[in-house]
Amino acid sequence: MKQSFFIAGTDTGVGKTLVSTALLRLFNQQGYATIGLKPVAAGCEMTPEGLRNDDALQLQKAASVELDYDLVNPVALAQPIAPHLAAGFKMLSAERIAAFCRGAMLHDANIYIIEGAGGWRVPLNRRETMADLPRLLDIPVILVVGMKLGCLNHALLTAESIRRDGLQLAGWVAVETDASMLALDENIRSLQERIPAPFLGHIPYMDVPSADVAAASLKVDYLSGG
Ligand SMILES: Nc1ncnc2c1ncn2[C@@H]1O[C@H](COP(=O)(O)OP(=O)(O)OP(=O)(O)O)[C@@H](O)[C@H]1O
Ligand SMILES: C[C@H](N)[C@H](N)CCCCCC(=O)O
Ligand SMILES: [Mg+2]
């Protein structure tokens, strides 16, 4: 089996990295070889080895196939702001980012998890957005919904855009990032009734977020054809 997924979110900070690492752990447990990529990361620390982003390090660690950091995160931008702004005078190009991903994907694995940056329509340059990456790679999308007031609108607009952009929505995940959200179950049900894609699970609020605990909340049979 060889399958790739682009992990999109309703926004930044909604749990994309938690879901990405949870999916990697889950597929590892099922005996699949996995690779996690964060092609564009805005918000990096300078280290003796160069710029390092926490999401990319988590994906690198959760994957079963060892890859050099530069393959996991080819575009590392220092400032934690929108990628096209963090890039400054260096122009980001969706085709170049896709080419980096294709290079990393020459490394053999069964599952490739590619985490986006921010939400679906985050700009890469004047013309292109993050959405152009899964389009160029021609891979299905998993939508991560951060459960908070306002997420119904964000989730439905994003699911609609993914389909209008001609991409397949392979499934969606509800992440409880706000422990005090009112009517959580009713909100999840409202999305189940309206998002035309499989519901892969609800990751509960955790005082100390753990990819393994999150993995236990996900059902990926729909994804791996099992
Ligand atoms: N279920 C949860 N319970 C508690 N905290 C959570 C949960 N899911 C995510 N978080 C926390 O919310 C924050 C944002 O999550 P995460 O980093 O996965 O978001 P993201 O969508 O990947 O953001 P970015 O756009 O920066 O990549 C993190 O501090 C994470 O630990
Ligand atoms: C810095 C942050 N954690 C992400 N990497 C980038 C989020 C960009 C969001 C841009 C926006 O939609 O306004
Ligand atoms: Mg992230």
From TrEMBL:
Q: Name the GO cellular-component terms.
A: cytosol
The keyword ATP-binding appears for this protein: yes
Task: Kindly indicate whether the keyword Ion transport belongs to this entry.
Answer: no
Documented EC number(s): 6.3.3.3
Q: In which pathway does it act?
A: Cofactor biosynthesis; biotin biosynthesis; biotin from 7,8-diaminononanoate: step 1/2
Query: CDD domains from the entry?
Result: DTBS
Q: Where in the cell is it found?
A: Cytoplasm
Q: Which InterPro entries match?
A: DTB_synth_BioD, P-loop_NTPase
Cofactor(s) the protein needs? Mg(2+)
**What is an annotated GO biological process for this record, any one?**
biotin biosynthetic process
Q: How does the annotation summarize its subunit structure?
A: Homodimer.
Q: Which HAMAP family match?
A: BioD
Q: What does this protein do, in the record's words? A: Catalyzes a mechanistically unusual reaction, the ATP-dependent insertion of CO2 between the N7 and N8 nitrogen atoms of 7,8-diaminopelargonic acid (DAPA, also called 7,8-diammoniononanoate) to form a ureido ring.
The family classification in the record reads: Belongs to the dethiobiotin synthetase family.
Please state what the protein is called. Answer: ATP-dependent dethiobiotin synthetase BioD
> What is the scientific name of the source organism?
Nitrincola tibetensis
Q: Which gene is transcribed and translated to give this protein?
A: bioD
